[in-house]
Amino acid sequence: MNANDIRTKYLDFFAARGHAIIPSASLVPENDPTTLFTGSGMQPMLTYFLGETHPKGTRIADSQKCFRAEDIDDIGDNRHTTFFEMLGNWSLGDYFKKEQIPWIFDFLVHEIGLDPKNLYVTVFCGDKKNNIPKDEETPMLWQKVFDDAGIDAKIVEMGSQDDGAIKGMRGGRIFYYDAKENWWSRAGVPDNMPTGEPGGPDSEMFYDFGTEHDMRLGEHCHPACDCGRFMEIGNSVFMQYVKKDEGVFEELEHKNIDFGGGLERIVAAAQNMPDVFLAVSSLTDIVRHLENASGKKYEDDLKSFRIIADHIRGALFMIGDGVRPANTEQGYFARRLIRRSVQYADALGIAEGTLVDAVSIVTKSYEEHYPELKEQEAEIKELFAAEETKFRKTLTKGMREFEKRAETGIITGEQAFLLFTTYGFPIELTQELAEQKGIAVDKEAFTNFMKEHQAKSRSGAEQKFKGGLADHSEATTMLHTTHHILLRALQIVLGDHVKQRGSNITSERLRIDFSHDEKMTDEQKSEVERIVNEQIQSAVPVIKTILPKEEAERLGAQKEFGQKYPDMVNVYSVGPQDAVEGNPKIEQAYSLEFCGGPHVTNTSTIKGTFRIKKEQASSAGVRRIKGVLE
Known about the structure:
BirA Bifunctional Protein, domain 2; Threonyl-tRNA Synthetase, Chain A, domain 2; 3 domains; 10-stranded mixed sheet; 4-stranded antiparallel sheet
C-alpha cells in the first residue's frame, strides 16, 4: 500500500467509528505565536484540549501537514524528513485508553497488515518529582490486544534511553520509559512546561525492521534506540493534565486522546522497508529522477539524494501554503531548503533546471488529496527556478569572497555567517571548501550567530494572531477592515486575477502581498486610494456570517492563499448600506472574505484617510503594498 491508500484507510477507519474528518490546517499556524510552522497534528487542536468546543464534535480525525525546521540537520538518515503528514485522531473528553489502544492496534494489524510480532510499545513510568503517577492501565490494555493476537507481551522496566543501551530488551514487548521518552507536551518534559500548558503520558508504537544494531549507540538495542532498527510509527497521548505551577499538575476536566501517526513511517512499516526514501513514492520518484539526471546511484551518495528529495518536497508544500523564499520568518526556511538542494545537486553533477522538473513529480503524487498543489504548479516552478538562478549568481560572488577569507588560514564564525547571509553559502559548503584548502571553520561561533539571526527572524512572527494581525487593538482592527476593502479595490482597478498572497497588520500600518505581474502606475494607486476612502466614508456595515464552505465559495468569498477550510466558515462582508445582522445581503456586498476577525462593525468607525506609502515587488509575480490611515 502507498501513502494515498493508507491515508484513505485511516480516515475511513475512524469515520466508521464516529469521527468527523477535517481538512489539514496550513503549515503556517493561523493563531499560534509560539512557532513558525505547524509541527504536529495536535497544534491546531490545542484550544479544544483546554475546553473550547469543536464545531465538528468530540471525535475528530485528519491527516495534518507538518514541518519541523529543527529536523533539517537530521536529514540524511533513513527516517527523518522535514515535511511529513501526521495521521491523527482525537477524543475531546469522549473515549479514552480502553477504546484507543484496541482501535489503533486493529488499524495497524488488520487494516494495514503489519505483523504484530514486529510491534513493540512503550509506556510512562511516572514522574516522582512532579507527583505524576506511573501509568498502570495502559500496559494491561496492551497485554490484552497482544494476547488476542497470540503474542505473550512481557512488561519490562527500562528507564532512560541510556538504561536501554545497558540493559537491553530482556524479552520484553512493553517497556516503561521515563518522561523524556514517554511524556508529551509542546514544551517537552513536565519540568519545561509553562503554566497553563496541557500534556500527558503517552504510549509509543515501534516497528522492528530487524536490521543490525549500530554498536556506536550502546551495547544493546531497544525500542528508543536511534540506530534505525526500531522506527516509531505512532504515539497515543493521554492528554489529561495541565500544569498549574512549578511541580503542580492537575487533571483536566475532560480527559483527551491525541494520536499522531507518521504517515511516511507507517508506509515504510507496511512495506517492511526501513528507508522511507524508498518506501514513499513522492520521495522515491524524486530519487529516481535524480539518478537519471546525475548518472549516479542512490546507494552511491545516500545523504545527497535524501537531502534533495526531502528539501524539494518540503519547500514545495511551504510555497503551496503561501510561504515565499526570503531572509526572515518562514521564508528563511523555504529559501534554505531550495538553496541547500542546489548545493547537493551540484555535488551530484546535476544540471540547472533538474530540481524544477521534480516539482511536477511531487504535485502528481499528491494531486488526489492536495489538488491545490497541482493548481499552483506553474507558480511553484517559477519560484523554484528564480531562487535557483539567484543562488547560482550569488555562489559566483561568494566564491570570490571565500577565497579572500581563506587567505587568513581560518574562516571565523562571523565570516561563515556573512558568507551565508550575504552570499547564500550554506555552512556545509563553507566547511567543504575549507576542508579542501586544509583550513578550519569556527562552527561553534557560526552556530551562535545563526541562533541570534533565527531569533530575530522568529521575533517577526511573535504576537501574531488570526489573519497576520500583530494584536487586536482598535488601531489594528481598523487597519484589518481597511485591508479587506483594499483587496477588493485592487481587484476592481487591476483585475480579478489579483489574489491575496500574504498579509501583516500592526497598529501603525497594513501590508498586503498580492498576485500581479507589473508595477502599479501612479494613476492606479490613486484610484485604489479613492475607492478605499469612498467605502470608509460611506459608513457601510461590516457583518460576520457563518456559512457552509461551499456556499461561501459560490458567493465568491476571497480565501487565504494555500489555506484549507472546515465545512462551516466565518465570512466578513463589507456593505451594502442596508445590511444588518441576520440579513447581511451578501450578494450585494462590496467585499466578502473568509476570515477569523476581528473587524469594526461599521466603516464609519475607521479613523483617518487611507494612503499607499509603498508599492514594490515582493517575489516573482507578487507585489506588496504598505498602507496607513492618516
